[in-house]
């Protein structure tokens, strides 16, 4: 068993780390406070190839794989979880299902623009009454000639206002069995009837764009059906297996940021004539963070590796997400504690990490849903 990254993965991780430290870290707090999408950062990450990491070379990507993507997302999220989720959603929730379920024509049309970052991707599954119960879709798609007419609303969509193409889900058979009556569509922002609604004001990841999407008699050409008719829910769930590796990477990155900042501060800050790192309660917190960072990283890279070699990874992705999101929240809570009163202010990044960590337990399946996914095979008759 080899726990080492390949030379290529190591080099990509170092590029991501270097870029994160030099270009993202100095401005992350400002984008968070302004609740502004970090376009200059995303553009530069696109130039460096981070939007095409799982796309084959023939479509303009580098195809370096999911382990390389995971370690990059960790390094980016270590300084800015908003940028982390932006890149994660593009790669794992849009590019990934397009690669797996798309027709050759769809791949040729969309992948080169997505690989270069000229186009950004999003994933529209959630509706006001379809959250954890995602199969309870109310959006409908009705075939009319060579188009589908789609009506409905999606809520909480990451990248909604910045995306050029979105994978959207809609009921295509009203009488059909729940979960077998939904189809997936590739929706372009310029399709008639498409609009972006209210942008959400959030607790954390405030530089990530989150908004509603409205489809009003939106016309989608029939060739934009993704995968098989009425098989969209399976595509949605399969896609989330990959997406959860992205969120586990984001959570691991937040944890890494908490550990780095806490260790540095514990060496600098003196009380009672000693650095606070000399006190046992601080050492315990640092030790827990270090141990859980390694465990999160290993669980996440195991899932990413399985994805790279084409092995089903639903359980492993759910375990990685559940564990790392819980560990990130614990680490952020302890990081603020290590910083004392200073941790409660916007002068130090741990306040932002504390707010950012929470979302990793909610989106792409809450922690409660991950427990269900993980326990399912053990409880099956
Ligand atoms: C910032 C942000 C970005 C998002 N980005 C996207 C995106 O890009 N695309 C997208 O499609 N969606 C996105 N979402 C939606 C997200 O995936 C949902 O919010 C999430 O799946 C939970 O759904 P809900 O909010 O409706 O909560 P609910 O499903 O209403 O859950 C409420 C509570 O009940 C619990 N619960 C529900 N059902 C069960 C059950 N069977 N057993 C035990 N507990 C249960 C939940 O765990 C939770 O604690 C985003 C959400 C946020 C906040």
How would you portray this structure in words?
The chain has 381 residues and is an alpha+beta fold. It has 3 domains: 7-120, Butyryl-Coa Dehydrogenase, subunit A, domain 1; 122-230, Butyryl-CoA Dehydrogenase, subunit A, domain 2 (Beta Barrel); 234-379, Up-down Bundle (Butyryl-CoA Dehydrogenase, subunit A, domain 3). Helix content is 51%, strand content 15%. The protein has helices at residues 7-34, 39-47, 66-77, 81-101, 104-116, 232-268, 280-308, 314-339, 350-357, 367-379; strands at residues 121-124, 140-144, 147-158, 165-171, 182-188, 194-199, 210-221, 225-226, 270-271, 274-275. The strands form 3 sheets. It has a 4-stranded mixed beta sheet. It has a 4-stranded antiparallel beta sheet with strand order 2-3-7-6, with helices on one face. A two-stranded antiparallel sheet has the order 9-10. The longest helix has 37 residues, at 232-268. The two termini are 33 Å apart. The model has no long low-confidence stretch (mean pLDDT 98). The structure holds flavin-adenine dinucleotide. Flavin-adenine dinucleotide (FAD) binds next to β1, β3 and α10.
Secondary structure topology:
Blueprint: H1 7-34, H2 39-47, H3 66-77, H4 81-101, H5 104-116, E1 121-124, E2 140-144, E3 147-158, E4 165-171, E5 182-188, E6 194-199, E7 210-221, E8 225-226, H6 232-268, E9 270-271, E10 274-275, H7 280-308, H8 314-339, H9 350-357, H10 367-379
Helix pairs in contact: 1-3, 3-4, 3-6, 3-7, 4-5, 4-6, 6-7, 6-8, 6-9, 7-8, 8-9, 8-10
The site of flavin-adenine dinucleotide has 20 residues, from strand 1, strand 3 and helix 10.
């Amino acid at each position: 068993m080899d726990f080492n990254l390949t030379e290529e993965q190591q080099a990509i991780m170092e590029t991501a780390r270097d870029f994160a430290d030099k270009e993202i870290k100095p401005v992350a707090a400002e984008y968070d406070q302004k609740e502004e999408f970090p376009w200059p950062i995303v553009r530069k990450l696109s130039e460096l190839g981070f939007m095409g990491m799982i796309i084959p070379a023939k479509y303009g990507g580098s195809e370096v794989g999911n382990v390389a993507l995971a370690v990059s997302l960790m390094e980016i999220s270590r300084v800015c979880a908003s940028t982390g989720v932006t890149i994660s959603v593009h790669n794992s929730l849009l590019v990934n299902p397009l690669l797996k379920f798309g027709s050759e024509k769809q791949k040729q049309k969309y992948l080169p623009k997505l690989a270069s970052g000229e186009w950004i991707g999003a994933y529209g599954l959630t509706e006001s009454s379809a959250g954890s119960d995602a199969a309870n879709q109310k959006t409908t798609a009705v075939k009319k000639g060579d188009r589908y007419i789609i009506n409905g609303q999606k809520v909480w969509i990451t990248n909604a206002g910045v995306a050029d193409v979105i994978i959207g889900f809609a009921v295509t058979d009203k009488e059909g069995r729940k979960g077998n009556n939904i189809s997936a569509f590739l929706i372009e922002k310029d399709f008639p009837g498409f609009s972006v609604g209210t942008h959400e004001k959030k607790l954390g990841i405030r530089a990530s764009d989150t908004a509603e999407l409205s489809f009003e008699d939106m016309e989608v050409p029939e060739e934009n059906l993704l995968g098989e008719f009425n098989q969209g829910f399976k595509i949605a769930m399969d896609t989330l297996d990959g997406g959860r590796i992205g969120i586990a990477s984001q959570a691991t990155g937040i944890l890494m940021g908490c550990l780095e900042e806490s260790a540095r501060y514990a060496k600098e800050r003196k009380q009672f004539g000693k650095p606070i790192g000399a006190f046992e309660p601080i050492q315990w917190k640092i030790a827990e963070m270090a141990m859980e960072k390694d465990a999160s990283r290993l669980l996440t890279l195991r899932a990413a590796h399985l994805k790279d070699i084409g092995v089903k990874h639903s359980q492993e992705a759910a375990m990685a997400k559940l564990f790392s999101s819980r560990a990130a929240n614990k680490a952020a809570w302890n990081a603020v504690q290590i910083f004392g009163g200073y941790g409660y202010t916007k002068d130090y990044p741990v306040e932002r990490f504390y707010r950012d960590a929470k979302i990793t337990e909610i989106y792409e399946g809450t922690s409660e849903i991950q427990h269900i996914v993980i326990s399912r095979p053990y409880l099956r008759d």
